[in-house]
Each structure stands twice: as structure tokens, then as C-alpha cells.
Amino acid sequence: MSTVTQKITDWADKKDGSFKRQTSTFRAVIGPDSHFLPEKGRYHLYVSYACPWAHRTLIVRALKGLEEYIDVSVVHPHMLEGGWHFVKPSDFTSNPAPVSAHNFDSFPGATSDQLNGLHYLSEVYYAASPEYKARFTVPVVWDTKEKTIVNNESSEIIRFFNTGFNESLSDKEKELDLYPEELRGEIDELNEWVYNDVNNGVYKCGFAATQEAYEKALVPLRDALERLDKLFSDGREFLIGGRLTEADVRLYTTIVRYDPVYHGHFKCNWGSIRHDYPHINRWLKNLYWNYPAFKDTTDFDHIKEHYYYSHAHINPTRIVPLGPRVDIEPL
Ligand SMILES: N[C@@H](CCC(=O)N[C@@H](CS)C(=O)NCC(=O)O)C(=O)O
């Protein structure tokens, strides 16, 4: 088994320098009618606190009270040669990995691989599929029974976290439905443009390899933020239907990273959330300060350290900026 070196710039299209995100490989679901049954302690979630896609799964896990059902391992924020890695457990069970750009030192909040004591996330992927050829991304849901990956696509993981374990949950947790039948049309429609222009839009700006690709990505991002600010200008607390839905979760993980990281590191600087989009800012602050599932899963140290340190082609000095003065403004 070898650890493969992958560069972020490998995601850029060779012809026009635009950023292309890969399609996730493992797409099964957990649920009472699935091959993967919702059993307590059976599944393990691998995440990075830095990653907006993994962050979605942590928020839904907390909102649905699934902490007792699904344990978590958190990778170190530095994603260097060899990809995501864990911190040193008391003793590694896997052989010392061949690529050693780091020494597996600790970082507050990062963990070892709680399940298998592995060095790299890539080893989790190879354990599920020795022939795996794509990128080693978080989040990953691992099944301890069949020793395989159930799913590595956040948009699907949050859907089965939303309903898959309902039979065992308390009434309050069961009743929380982040993808209610009557709002699905509206949620899907909003998710689509928010994904393209905002969630992935910031990456298209940041990982653009040409001036043209960058400018082509910034314009729709700017327009989408203006559209969202207008939407929130009626004072609504949530995006759709007057209730918390997955649309809020999916938008939050990008917006909370915007001022600390995307504005500077990814050059998404047409405006900042706090100074230029007052209504988005109000919605953001409400979720962060009033909902522990959002605040407690948001770790600004991991977020800033990851982006500024890991993308050496964008920030070769690896200096992590001290600002903005506050990560998120008070209510
Ligand atoms: N479609 C995936 C995307 C996940 C993703 O791209 N995660 C990034 C971190 S933000 C990653 O792990 N990248 C590793 C790499 O590029 O090698 C999802 O939404 O779950």
C-alpha cells in the first residue's frame, strides 16, 4: 500500500485553468431498509474541522443527537504530502507511512484514528478498496461491521443522518426533519445555485489557475451573495419555510469561513460578510450564537490553519493571518 501524493492544483482543468470537483465514489446509505442498518456504535465518521463539506455532517450529527451513535475521528488541519493525516496515538498500528512531511504531532481538537490507529486517511480508503484511484476526501462514513466505506458524499450523508436513525431517537430528535417533504422542491432548487455559486464557487475562485477562470468564478459568487442578502432582508431566521432545513446547514459552512479564509486566501474579496452583506451576517450570527450544533462544531483554528498552511501554491510563506479581529461578530 502506498500513500499517493496529490496536489490541489491537479483539480484544475488543463485547458482553461478552472477548478473541477471530483464525483464521490462511495454512495450507499444507512437506514432501516438498507443493507447498512442503523445500529448504535457501528459507524465511524472521519472529518476535518476545517472542511466545509465535513462540517455539514458534524452539524447534522449534533442536531439529530447522533453523538452517542456515531463516533468521530478528526484529522490534523495540515493537508500536505500524503493527504489528510491523524495525530500520533500512543502507538500506531499501521506501518510507518512512507511520506513524512510532518511528524504527526498533536493539534488541539485533532485526534488519532480512533478506530484503527492509522496514519493517513488514504489508508482508510485503501482498506475499503485497494484499487481506489480518486482523492482521499473527508467526510467518510466507515462501517466497522463490514469494514468498508458506506459513503463519502456529504450531501447524502446529511440526508441519511436526518432520517436513518429515527426509530431509535427521542421524539424531539425524530421530529426534527431537515428535508421535509413539502419543502423539498424549494430546498433542491436553492441548493443547486448555492452549491454552484457559493459552496463550490469560493473554491472555483481560490483554485482558479488563470485570471480568466478566477474572474469567471467571482462574478456568480458576488451575484449569489447579493441574492441571498436580499432574501434575508425580510428578517427571516431561516432560508426556507420558516424553519431550519439542510439548506441553512449547507450555506452556513461556507459563510462562516468567508471572512476568516475565503475573503483573503481565496480572493473572494468583492465584499466581506460583516461589512457588505448585513442580512446574511444577521442570519449567520443567529445560527452561530443561538444554536450549539453550529457553534460547537465550528473551529476557527482548524479552519484558518488548514487553508493558509496547506495550500502552498496559493500561500507559499504558509503564514496564517491573525485577523479578522473577531472570527464572528457578537449578536
Ligand atoms: N463531494 C465531497 C467533497 C469533499 C471534499 O472535497 N473534501 C476536501 C476537504 S474540504 C478534501 O478532503 N480534500 C482532500 C484532497 O483534495 O485531497 C463532499 O461533499 O463530501
TrEMBL record:
GO terms for biological process: cell wall organization. Glutathione binds at W84, R135, F136, T137, V138, E153, S154. Residues 180-310 form the GST C-terminal domain. It is found in: Cytoplasm. It catalyses: L-dehydroascorbate + 2 glutathione = glutathione disulfide + L-ascorbate; RX + glutathione = an S-substituted glutathione + a halide anion + H(+). Its main location: cytoplasm. Keywords: Cell wall biogenesis/degradation, Cytoplasm, Oxidoreductase, Transferase. One of its GO terms (cellular component) is cytoplasm. Its EC number is 1.8.5.1, 2.5.1.18. Pfam families: GST_C_2, GST_N_2. It comes from the Eukaryota. The active site is at C51 (nucleophile), Y203 (proton donor/acceptor). GO terms for molecular function: glutathione dehydrogenase (ascorbate) activity; glutathione transferase activity. The record marks Y262, Y307 as: Lowers pKa of active site Cys. Gene3D superfamilies: 1.20.1050.10, Glutaredoxin. Belongs to the GST superfamily. Omega family. This is Glutathione S-transferase omega-like 2. It comes from Tremella mesenterica.
